[in-house]
Amino acid sequence: MQTEPQITFRGMEPSAAIEHTIREKIGRLENFHNRITSCRVVVEAPHRHGQKGQIYRIAIDVDVPGGVVVVNREPGQNHAHEDIHVAIRDAFSAAQRQLEDHVRKVSGHRVKDHPAKEHGTVARIFPDEGYGFISTKPGEELFFQRASVTGDGWRELDVGSRVHFTPMDGEKGPYAVAVTVAE
Q1: pLDDT tens for residues 4-19?
Q2: Can you tell me the distance from the alpha carbon of 67 to that of 101, in angstroms, rounded to the nearest whole number?
Q3: What gap in Å lies between CA 55 and CA 77, rounded to an integer?
Q4: 7 pairs with which residues across the strands?
């Protein structure tokens, strides 16, 4: 970031813990979009006006080449935002979504690329341990876990079952996710 992030508190005392949380969220935005030039965050606790809890308002302005991302969350009736951490989380989630949209518009991409599905057969399965191996080509097998099988497909799997899956590379070698029983 070219300039130091600005964090302003209105209607409340500045909090080192809240500022730390916001700086972490800004860091995550920078990891997502490394060309952020500046970021301004306003944390506002509106006057009580007879209501039970304060609903926090979070405003975020992020400058990036080719545009500005503005998140201006009005308190409304979202009582979850009586928790300042929830209000901050929601505002930064909205900022990230807007940054994603900005990146797509600037780069001309319209569709998210998804890894291609591959086909194979279950070579070995260990139901009690919750994992198995898919044979893709002669001599090539991919590890998969019960949690990687979509729906109730785990119950339908047996040695020789045909499956569709998405291959991934891991620290211990290739593995399969989004495993679906072929019909």
Answers
A1: 999 999 989 999 999 9
A2: 11
A3: 8
A4: 41
- Torsion angle defined by CA atoms of residues 62, 63, 65 and 70, in that order, rounded to the nearest 10 degrees: 60
SS3 label, residue 31: helix
**Correct CATH for 6-107 of 3.90.1300.10, 3.30.160.100, 1.50.10.10, 3.40.50.1000:** 3.30.160.100
Name which residue leads in pLDDT, 149 or 53.
Answer: 149
Total Cβ atoms within 10 A of residue 18: 19
pLDDT tens, 49-106? 555 667 888 999 999 888 888 888 555 566 777 888 998 999 999 999 988 888 877 7
Residue 14 amino acid letter: P
- CA neighbor of 163 nearest in space, from 63, 142, 173: 142
Distance between start and end Cα atoms, the chain = 51
Q: What angle do CA 132, 138, 144 make, to 5 degrees?
A: 20
Distances (CA, A) of 51 to 57, 64, 183: 15, 38, 57
- At 135 the three-state DSSP class reads strand
pTM of the model: 0.56
